[in-house]
Amino acid sequence: MNRALKNQIKAAGLWLATFVVMVIMCVPGLWVVLSGFRPNREILAKPPIWIPQDLTLSNFAKIFGFGAEQVAIPVLSYFGNSMVIAITSTLIALSIGMAGGYAFARFRFRFKNSVFLGLMLFRAVPGIALSLPVFMLWSWLGIIDTQLGLIIVYVSLNVPFTIWLIDGFFRQIPISLSEAAQVDGCTRWQAFWKIEFPLARSGVAAAGVFAFLTSWNEFALASQLTRSTDSKTLPVGLMDFTAQFTIDWAGMCAMAVIIIVPALVLTFLVQKHLISGLTFGGVKG
Amino acid sequence: MSSISLKKVAKSYGRLEVVHGIDLDIAHNEFVVLVGPSGCGKSTTLRMIAGLEEITEGEIHIGDRLVNDLPPRKRNISMVFQNYALYPHMNVRDNLGFGLKIAGQPQEVVDERVREAAAILGISELMDRIPAELSGGQRQRVAMGRAIIRDPEAFLFDEPLSNLDAKLRVQMRTEIKKLHHKVKTTVVYVTHDQVEAMTLADRIVIMKDGHIEQVGTPMEVFNHPVNTFVASFIGSPPMNLVPATVAGGQIVLSDETRMPVPRRLASYTHDGMAVIVGIRPDDMTPVGHGIHDSGETANLSLTVELAELLGTETLIYTRLAGQEVQGKMFDPRDVHEGERLPFRVALDKLHLFDAASGRSVRAT
Lengths: 285, 364
Known about the structure:
The structure holds two protein chains of two kinds.
Chain A: H1 2-36, H2 40-43, H3 58-63, H4 75-106, H5 112-124, H6 131-141, H7 147-171, H8 175-183, H9 188-217, H10 220-225, H11 234-237, H12 249-274
Chain B: E1 4-13, E2 16-26, E3 31-35, H1 42-50, E4 57-62, E5 65-66, E6 77-80, H2 92-102, H3 107-121, H4 136-148, E7 154-158, H5 166-182, E8 186-191, H6 194-200, E9 203-208, E10 211-216, H7 218-223, H8 228-233, E11 240-247, E12 250-253, E13 258-260, H9 263-266, E14 274-279, E15 284-286, E16 297-303, E17 306-309, E18 313-320, E19 323-330, E20 340-346, E21 351-354
Parallel strand pairs in B: 3-8, 3-9, 6-7, 7-8
Antiparallel strand pairs in B: 1-2, 1-4, 4-5, 9-10, 11-12, 11-14, 12-13, 14-21, 15-20, 16-20, 17-18, 18-19
């Protein structure tokens, strides 16, 4: 009886601690999302209004150009740019990551370790440190303010990470599975797609989510390399809400919601692949 | 169902040669076991037959086809791997049918063959399980099922039993033998376990350091080992090997223990010849406790150092010319350490090897 009570107190304590941590992590996000649905005067009110009194969609209507009040921000172009750039760079980074990860996991070649170390070191360089050289190079090449320019940057930021992550997943798959498939009648290519790829899928999915989020959320380099609606992404677009003397917090928060939602949806869709439901057992005992 | 023939087959990794030009002819439907200590090149040889390793030099024929440059899928062989290599994301049915599906067989044919193979191996009730839900023995059966289903020209087994516990290993060994009787096919089987080799093989190929030491039926390699390596590798417990010299028709050990040179070996020896005497523990038995007491024998008096009771026999550790040797006591009575026992050595089962080359004197 006493012990049961103790256990209950312990469980309650753990629950409370978890709750506090979650509050600390979630409240800022929640605040941004809520502010997206509140008028500016309520956001800026002093003392702050904790409980929203007046929820409205007018911030969204405003930035999408509906209703009386309009903000001259081309959200749809930004959204389109972000989508094209993030999806394209993710797909490229994933295909390079799969090829590279497979090569590092399966083949022996000269300077393998040095190349791998080089990739990891490259990953350690903060992207912003490269912004000036990249800017100069891109302006010579004439790809400043193009989607292509950002795609190249994001691919090179993501590739070391995707290679490293996918390499680890391929390493866990015994070579004999591919060999068995080849004896069973597969080409090496078929063995890869029918046996090895399905087993490494959770790794590829994880790498894909990370690469997408990196490209989707990146601000520093994008703010240097983009100029106009031709290539500006959503995070850069947020800056449009800062005028010389005012900041449109409500509009900015509404746009932040637009940025957050696709990222959340993607993560949610892919998470079932992330939880590695694939219990091994095809080999040994 | 085909013969397999290896001609001067060699394998090198860079400058390191691991298989040195071996020749081997495996007949149609024959069960051949490659056996040897780890690193002897037996698995590499098997993998070259399978097409999983490139052949550095020489030729491999399966049937009448030269397969050197054919990928595994075109060699029409099937293989059972040491770790089974079942596809973890497929259930047993799909694991079995995978090869047929890849070959583009219609679904009805695949289903039918899967049913047949499952029936042969007694795994029909496991069809919807994935490999993780199977025991070691069941995985082994599925792996064998996957091998027989395609009706290949040859089965290749790469140490298939080494991951099983001792009891299951003996059971699966019998099943493999039965399977071979049922689906008559050429089999190449790799193991490091000489008992497996003896029990399964039509012919045993004993390998060491990338060379073939001897090829023969289990009885041939047991009764007529060509050198000391084969002599000590085949048979359990291993053959006792003691250095000696031949003098006046006698084998003289270093402690002046003498026994006559067996008549059948007399013509192969000469006075002053340095030899190694090979005596299997079964042929060195306390008087009255042997199975070879008749025929040509020699008598020795030896002191028991240790006795291991095995039930039907007792293994006796003793010392011959300063070297530890083992004898066997059949129909055993109690013996104790330090006891001096009269031993009888069956001379018609005795082996003599040239001391310098290690080769059997009959072979040189």
